[in-house]
Write a structure and sequence with these properties.
By secondary structure, the chain is mainly alpha-helical. 58% of the residues lie in helices and 5% in strands. The chain has 2 domains: 1-70; 74-170, Rossmann fold (3-Layer(aba) Sandwich), CATH 3.40.50. A two-stranded parallel sheet has the order 1-2.
Length: 170
């Protein structure tokens, strides 16, 4: 989405100057306001961005594999399931929290109204369906210590899974 790059050009052409800051970078809150209230706009953006992100992630993994610097690769990809890309990954971890907490976090992070936060949440796949696709889940509704504990257990399992894959046992 950097100015002048392919995705930026298409976003700027589709949505116009209202989504550009004075420095010509994408005004993400302005773009979000559009795509979370217009299904066709969101689909356009998803179909544009997801393949580009997936290609960039694949290149990063290839580079790290060549360098031999990582035992496992973790990709933060909030819409992996919705985009239909779970098949590109060995394991899927869904990180989630309760709806009340999700609204609170969105409002704090994005500075948006409760209505806008609920609209964002409503535009996403329901949690129950996401969990159906998950190999592992981390519930971040509790304390930080509880989240860290769950995350460490999932990480250890991912390392074990990767080792089994290397041995051809999965």
């Amino acid at each position: 989405m950097r100015p002048g790059r392919a995705a930026w050009k298409l976003v700027a052409a589709r949505f116009g100057p209202s989504v550009l800051r004075p420095d010509r970078t994408i005004d993400r809150p302005a773009l979000a306001a559009i795509v979370f209230s217009d299904l066709a706009a969101r689909r356009f953006l998803d179909q544009l961005v997801h393949p580009l992100v997936l290609a960039e992630q694949a290149e990063a993994v290839r580079r790290l594999e060549r360098e031999g610097r990582a035992r496992i690769f973790v990709v933060e990809a909030a819409l992996t399931i919705e985009a239909g890309y779970t098949g590109h990954f060995d394991r899927v971890v869904v990180v989630h929290c309760g709806k009340t907490e999700q609204v609170r976090r969105l409002r704090g992070r994005d500075g948006i109204s409760r209505t806008a936060a609920l609209r964002k949440i409503g535009s996403q796949m329901p949690l129950r369906e996401k969990l159906h696709h998950a190999d592992y889940a981390v519930n971040t509704s509790g304390t930080l210590a509880a989240t860290v504990d769950q995350t460490e257990r999932v990480y250890a399992q991912l390392v074990r899974d990767a080792e089994l894959k290397r041995r051809g046992q999965t």
